[in-house]
């Protein structure tokens, strides 16, 4: 089935919102329930995020389930989607991310948006984000070329690299 531009953007918006709700919400919950044990918090966040990546199964047939501006830009660079559709995808993903974070914070009685108390900067943070994004795109493209049906299952484990790199810089 072929979908128009607006259903695709809507799928990116909703999928990004739910993914961020799961990632941020499980991070908050893991931190609250772990009693200061970072390994338990990471495990809770990892399991919840892996389960939330079932969103790829739901929205993949509609929009490709990018949920990440880097994936959208990379897909457009490889002619997967036309460049004229990229702004809509990016807008849907960014607005969905804000909705997802705000919703997760609201679920746990936190301010909708606040500045982070954890310093996240410097060369090591930039390098870890580069490696995680490179790994994510490598898995997507590698699986797509060989077995397109397994991409949605392969993305979960590589996504945990991104979460791990972020949590490492929190502690």
Q: Any overview of this molecule?
A:
- The protein is mostly helical and 171 residues long.
- The chain has one domain: Up-down Bundle (Glycerol uptake facilitator protein).
- It is 75% helix and 0% strand.
- It has 7 helices and no strands.
- Helix 1 (5-33) packs antiparallel against helix 2 and helix 2 runs antiparallel to helix 7.
- The protein is globular, with a radius of gyration of 16 Å.
Domain tally: 1
Contiguous runs where pLDDT drops below 50 for at least 5 residues: 160-171
Amino- and carboxy-terminal Cα gap: 46 Å
User: What CATH architecture would you give?
Assistant: Up-down Bundle
The H-level CATH homologous superfamily, spelled out, is Glycerol uptake facilitator protein
The radius of gyration is 16 Å
Query: Can you give the helix content as a percent range?
Result: over 70%
In terms of structural class, how would the helical and strand content be classed? mainly alpha
CATH third-tier fold name? Glycerol uptake facilitator protein
**CATH class descriptor name:** Mainly Alpha
Question: Mean of residue pLDDT?
Answer: 82
Largest sheet: none
């Amino acid at each position: 089935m072929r979908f128009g531009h607006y259903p695709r953007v809507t799928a990116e918006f909703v999928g990004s919102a739910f993914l961020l709700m799961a990632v941020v919400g499980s991070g908050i919950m893991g931190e609250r329930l772990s009693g200061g044990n970072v390994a338990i918090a990471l495990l809770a966040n990892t399991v919840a995020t892996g389960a939330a990546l079932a969103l790829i199964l739901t929205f993949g047939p509609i929009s490709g389930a990018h949920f990440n501006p880097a994936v959208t830009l990379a897909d457009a660079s490889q002619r997967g989607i036309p460049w004229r559709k990229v702004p809509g995808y990016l807008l849907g993903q960014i607005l969905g991310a804000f909705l997802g974070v705000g919703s997760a914070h609201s679920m746990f009685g936190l301010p909708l948006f606040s500045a982070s108390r954890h310093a996240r900067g410097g060369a090591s943070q930039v390098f870890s984000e580069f490696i995680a994004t490179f790994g994510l795109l490598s898995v997507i493209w590698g699986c797509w070329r060989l077995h397109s049906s397994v991409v949605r299952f392969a993305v979960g484990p590589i996504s945990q690299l991104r979460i791990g790199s972020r949590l490492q810089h929190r502690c």
